[in-house]
C-alpha cells in the first residue's frame, strides 16, 4: 500500500514512524496494566479464566485463535476497557482553538491551547460509581462507554484502537490459560523459600492445621528476642497446649475478678480527665501509655505510676524499639539494647512473681487465702519453670500492648472520617449512659448492649489490619486446592489481603461498620488469626476498646489536625503521632 501510494518518501517514513511510536508504548503499557489490575482482582481474573477456558474447549489442540473467537471475548473486552479507564495510558491530548469558541458559558480565544484531560473524566465520581475501583462489570451498562474516551475522539480518534484491543485479548488468552498468579505465589523472603497466601480458604486451612501440617515459624531475630519459651514461638504441640492453657486461664481469671471492669472504667475516666484543658494531643502516644497501664493493672496487679511499673515501661519501650531493628548485636545498636532490656524485664517480672508468692505464703499462714488470679501461675508452679512463668507474663505484655493501643488509634482515625458511624455510635453510648446513675461505672450488661460499637471495632480491625500476616512452616508436603506446598517451606498467610479483597467485601477500602449486619462478613475476616493459636486476648482487647470509646464519645469531639495514614514499621503506627484537636462534648448526659 505504501509502495503504491502517491506519497513522498519522507511521508512514507513518517507514517511507519507514527505507527511504531503510537503502537509501541501504548500496547506494552496496556499489557502491563492488565497484569497489574488482574493480579489484584481475583474475581475478574477468575471470570476471565472461565471465558478463555470455554473458548479453548471448543477448539482443537494447538488451533490458533481467529476473529470468531475474538468476537466471543465479551468479558475480556470489559476487562480491557476497564483497564484503559483506570490505567489512563494517555492522560490528555493537545489542541489549539483556531477560532473564538463559546461553549457552556466558557470562552476560549482563538490561538489558545486546550488540554482535554481524558483521565480526569475517567476518574470523575459524578460519572462513575467508585471510580478508583477496578470493576469490569460496570461495562455491562452501555452508558459507561459514552463516558470513557481512552482512544480520544472525533477525526483524530486512535486508528489502532481495535488492533491494540485484539493484541491484548490474544495475549490474555495465553496468559490466563498457561500461568497462575494472583492470590497464592512463591517467593523467597526472610532467607527461606516461602509461599505467600492471600487466599481466604488456604489461610484458614493453614491456621486450622496447626501442629498437624503446619507449625509456627517466626524468623530467628524475632525468636531470639521473644525467647524460646514464648507461646508464639513454641512449636511443640504438647508444650504449646500446656503454656496456652495457663495463659488463657490467666486472662480468664483476671477478667472475672470483681474489680476488673471497675479498673478499666477508672483508667478511662482518668485518661479523659488528664486531657481537660488540652486542645491538641498526640493520640498515638496517649493510647500506648493507656494500654500499658491497662496491662499493669490487669495483668501485673500494679497501679499506674508505681516505680516498678515505670521501670518496666522504660525497659519495655527499649525492648520494642529493638524488636523491629536490624538484628546486629553490637553494644550501641537498638537490637543489643533490646536484648539487655529483655533481661532486665525478665528480672523485674521475676521480682513481681516473688512478691506474689510471698504475699500468698503470708495469706496461707494467716488463713486468709483469697483465690488470687495469679494463683493460676503460682499454684501450677510445679508444671512450669520460673523462666516459663516470666515468659508468660512477657507474652501477654508484648501481645497486648501494641495491639490494643493500635486498635484505639485506628478507632480514633477511622471515626474522625466517618461522621455517620460516629453519630450512630454516640447515640448508642448516650442511650446506655442515660439508663445509669451519675458516675455509675460500666458493667457487663452495658457491654453486651454495645452492638454497634462491636461492629465499629470489627470494621476497624478489618480496615486497619493490625496484624498483617503470621509466620508458619509446612511440616509435611501439603496439597490444597491445587497448590503444592513442600515440607520445610515457609508459609505466610496474609490476613490483611483477605480483609481488603474486592471479591469478598464490597468496596473493601471503605470504612463501613454496617457491613457487619450481614453475618457472612465475620467468616471472611480473621484479625485474630485462627486454629489453636487464635488470639486469646481478642475479647479483652475488644472490651477495653469499647469502654474507652464510651468515655471518649461522652467527653470529647475530635478532628485530625494533620493528614495521616496508618503505616507499618512493622507494627501499625501513625508517622506523625496522630495529632488530634479535642473539643469538650457538651451534650454529655451525666
Ligand atoms: C486487640 C487487638 C489484637 C489483635 C488484632 C491480636 C491479633 C493476634 C493474632 C493475629 C494472633 C495470632 C498469631 C499467630 O497465629 O501466630 C495473636 C496471638 C496472640 N495474642 Fe493477640 N491480638 C490482639 C490483642 C491481644 C491481647 C489484648 C492479648 C493479651 C492480653 C493478646 C495475646 C495474644 C497471645 C498470647 C497470642 C499467642 C497465641 C498462641 O500462639 O497460641 N492479644 N493475636
Automatic annotation (TrEMBL):
CDD domains named among the record's database cross-references: CYP90-like
Annotated compartments: Membrane
SUPFAM superfamilies: Cytochrome P450
Primary localisation category: membrane
Keyword Protein biosynthesis in annotation: no
Gene Ontology CC annotation, any one: membrane
Requisite cofactors: heme
Pfam families: p450
Membrane disposition: Single-pass membrane protein
Residues that, per the record, bind heme: 535
UniProt GO MF annotations: heme binding; iron ion binding; monooxygenase activity; oxidoreductase activity, acting on paired donors, with incorporation or reduction of molecular oxygen
One GO term (biological process): brassinosteroid biosynthetic process
Keywords: Heme, Iron, Membrane, Metal-binding, Monooxygenase, Oxidoreductase, Transmembrane, Transmembrane helix
Gene3D superfamilies registered for this protein in UniProt: Cytochrome P450
Family, per entry: Belongs to the cytochrome P450 family.
Protein known as: Cytochrome P450
Amino acid at each position: 500500500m505504501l509502495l503504491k501510494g502517491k506519497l513522498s518518501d519522507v511521508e512514507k517514513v513518517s507514517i511507519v514512524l507514527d505507527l511504531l511510536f503510537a503502537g509501541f508504548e501504548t500496547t506494552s503499557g496496556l499489557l502491563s496494566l492488565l497484569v497489574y489490575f488482574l493480579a489484584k482482582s481475583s474475581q475478574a481474573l477468575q471470570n476471565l479464566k472461565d471465558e478463555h477456558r470455554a473458548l479453548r474447549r471448543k477448539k482443537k489442540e494447538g488451533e490458533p485463535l481467529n476473529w470468531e473467537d475474538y468476537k466471543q471475548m465479551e468479558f475480556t473486552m470489559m476487562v480491557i476497557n476497564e483497564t484503559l479507564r483506570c490505567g489512563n495510558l494517555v492522560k490528555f491530548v493537545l489542541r489549539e482553538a483556531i477560532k473564538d469558541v463559546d461553549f457552556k458559558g466558557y470562552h476560549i480565544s482563538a490561538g489558545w491551547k486546550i488540554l482535554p484531560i481524558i483521565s480526569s473524566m475517567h476518574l470523575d465520581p459524578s460519572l462513575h460509581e467508585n471510580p478508583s475501583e477496578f470493576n469490569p462489570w460496570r461495562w455491562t451498562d452501555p452508558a459507561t462507554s459514552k463516558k470513557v474516551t481512552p482512544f480520544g475522539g472525533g477525526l483524530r480518534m486512535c486508528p489502532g484502537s481495535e488492533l491494540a484491543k485484539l493484541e491484548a485479548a490474544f495475549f490474555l488468552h495465553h496468559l490466563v490459560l498457561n500461568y497462575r498468579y494472583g492470590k497464592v505465589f512463591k517467593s523467597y523472603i526472610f532467607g527461606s523459600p516461602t509461599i505467600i497466601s492471600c487466599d481466604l480458604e488456604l489461610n484458614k486451612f493453614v491456621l486450622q492445621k496447626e501442629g498437624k501440617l503446619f507449625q509456627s515459624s517466626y524468623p530467628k531475630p524475632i525468636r531470639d528476642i521473644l525467647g524460646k519459651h514464648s507461646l508464639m514461638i513454641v512449636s511443640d504441640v504438647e508444650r504449646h497446649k500446656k503454656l496456652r492453657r495457663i495463659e488463657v486461664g490467666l486472662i480468664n481469671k483476671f477478667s472475672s475478678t470483681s474489680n476488673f471492669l471497675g479498673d478499666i472504667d477508672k483508667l478511662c475516666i482518668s485518661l479523659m480527665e488528664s486531657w481537660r484543658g488540652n486542645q491538641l494531643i498526640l493520640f498515638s502516644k496517649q493510647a500506648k501509655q493507656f494500654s500499658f497501664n491497662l496491662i499493669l493493672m490487669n495483668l501485673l496487679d500494679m497501679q499506674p505510676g508505681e516505680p516498678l511499673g515505670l521501670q518496666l515501661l522504660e525497659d519495655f519501650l527499649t525492648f520494642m524499639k529493638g524488636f523491629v531493628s536490624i538484628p546486629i548485636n553490637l553494644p550501641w545498636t537498638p537490637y543489643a539494647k533490646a536484648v539487655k532490656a529483655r533481661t532486665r524485664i525478665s528480672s523485674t517480672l521475676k521480682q513481681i512473681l516473688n512478691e506474689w508468692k510471698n504475699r500468698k505464703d503470708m495469706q496461707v499462714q494467716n488463713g486468709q487465702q483469697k483465690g488470687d488470679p495469679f494463683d493460676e501461675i503460682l499454684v501450677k508452679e510445679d508444671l512450669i519453670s520460673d523462666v516459663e512463668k516470666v515468659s508468660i507474663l512477657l507474652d501477654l505484655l508484648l501481645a497486648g500492648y501494641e495491639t490494643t493501643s493500635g486498635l484505639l488509634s485506628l478507632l480514633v482515625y477511622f471515626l474522625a472520617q466517618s461522621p455517620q458511624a460516629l453519630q450512630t455510635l454516640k447515640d448508642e453510648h448516650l442511650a446506655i449512659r442515660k439508663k445509669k446513675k451519675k458516675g455509675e461505672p460500666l458493667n457487663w450488661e452495658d457491654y453486651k448492649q454495645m452492638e454497634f460499637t462491636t461492629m465499629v471495632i470489627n470494621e476497624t480491625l478489618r480496615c486497619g489490619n493490625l496484624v498483617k500476616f503470621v509466620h508458619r512452616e509446612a511440616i509435611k508436603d501439603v496439597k490444597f486446592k491445587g497448590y503444592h506446598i513442600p515440607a520445610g517451606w515457609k508459609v505466610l498467610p496474609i490476613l490483611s489481603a483477605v480483609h481488603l479483597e474486592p471479591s469478598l467485601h464490597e468496596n473493601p477500602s471503605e470504612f463501613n461498620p454496617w457491613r457487619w449486619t450481614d453475618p457472612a462478613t465475620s467468616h471472611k475476616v480473621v484479625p485474630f488469626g485462627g486454629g489453636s493459636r487464635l488470639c486469646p486476648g481478642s475479647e479483652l482487647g475488644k472490651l477495653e476498646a469499647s469502654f474507652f470509646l464510651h468515655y471518649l464519645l461522652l467527653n470529647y469531639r475530635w478532628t485530625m489536625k494533620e493528614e495521616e495514614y496508618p503505616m507499618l514499621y512493622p507494627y501499625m503506627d501513625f508517622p506523625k503521632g496522630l495529632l488530634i484537636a479535642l473539643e469538650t462534648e457538651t451534650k454529655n448526659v451525666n
